[in-house]
Amino acid sequence: MNKKSIFFTITLFFIVMIIVTHIIIFMGYNIKQQEQIELQVSKYKTAIHRIMKKILDAHRFSSIQNINYKDFSRPPPPPRPEEIQILLNDTVIAKHLENYALELSDLSYEKLYSDAVLISEDENWKLFEYEGYKYFYIDDKFRELIIMDTQVSNENTEVMIYLTILLNIVFISFYIFLIKKLQPLNRLKKDIVKFANGDLDINTSCEGVDEISQVSNEFNKAIIKIQQLTNSRNLFLRNIMHELKTPITKGLLISNMMEESKFKNGLKKAFFRLEYLLGEFARIEEFTSQNIDLKKEQFRLIDILDHSLDILLTDSDSVNLEIVDNILVEVDFELFALAIKNLLDNAIKYGKDKPKVTIQKDMLVIKNKGEELSLRLEQYNKPFNKSYENSNNGLGLGLYIVNHILKAHSLEFSYLYENNENIFTIKF
């Protein structure tokens, strides 16, 4: 995953999950607690209502028994307030409260208000908790009452705490398990980055039977095969270059011992050309193995162009040169001269007249009249492409080498066909 690793994402996910779980548990606990409070208040109100109704109904029945027969059709008069106060005395109420597991409290309202925990309240009642017991205070039109619930309150708080701890342990255990399972993937990612940077001295083998271990082991097998192929190629290239250098050196020595003649000069040019091609093959090996070491310095572009023409064993008369701006460029002199040499070589070989080379403020342009490329430029950036460089004149490596050199310099390379001209542009 880009800059944010998979471990960061997993950690963030589990943190969010734990927070959400705690919120859900907390909300569920609060909802359940509120429901319990509502049930308890309803229980206390119902008990008080039934007790008062029972006491008043008993008084009414007693009043009816004392009414004369002629007045029997009339309802008894309601008890007066002072009678109600007498009827609803503490002794009578306490006796009826026993049927509901309740009793009158010995604590005053002031004591509860100062020391107890206020759980809930309304206009004419309050619910307190004190030392594990519930106390219900009510102030109705008849009298004030403070009722104590004789049953110890059990809100399952410990259960909720244990449940939260258990869920945290489960989440953390699963997180540790997942991280351990993904550690080989993180190591594999680092090894792949090293491999991409050209480091073949890595070992991605992994014990286990899961998919990540299998991928790591298969990738390690592929690295071993690539190491073997790379060693074989390097050995082959070193041997063949060594074998080719010997006859080229002997040829140069023999040509220097010959008398001056056109034949001697042509022979020396041929051997110099072979020597340069051998160096070019070494450069190709660097490109294919991604071992390019740039030595950038500032040079005049015209000097690099002159060196490219020298490599081609030709002079400035073979091109039409136009210098609009004599610019400086920061490049690797030999590599950049090799890139221009390949472009000029193709332009001279396949053009219908002299190629035109233009140096201006921020670009180098090489034009030659000829047929348009049959494929896109990207297709010619592959090695051994002979669609443009035929087998009689080269290996099909010219544009491939140009592309890699310019990529290493982070320069823009483009192609345009216009007015029967192939136009190659390098922008600085």
Q: Summarize this, please?
A:
This protein has ten helices and twelve strands. The protein has helices at residues 6-65, 81-87, 90-97, 109-115, 157-196, 211-257, 262-288, 301-311, 333-350, 398-408, and strands at 102-104, 117-121, 125-130, 133-139, 144-149, 296-300, 320-323, 328-332, 356-360, 363-369, 412-418, 421-427.
Mean pLDDT: 77
Proportion of strand residues: 15-25%
Structural class: alpha+beta
- Global geometry: rod-shaped
Q: Largest sheet at a glance? A: 5 strands, antiparallel
Query: Which sequence of strands runs across the widest sheet?
Result: 1-5-4-3-2
Span of the ends, CA to CA = 33 Å
Name the helicity range. 55-70%
- Reading the helices and strands in chain order gives HHHEHEEEEHHHEHEEHEEHEE
Number of helical stretches of at least 4 residues:
10
**DSSP, total strands:** 12
Q: What is the CA-based Rg, rounded? A: 50 Å
Q: Pick out the low-confidence regions.
A: 388-395
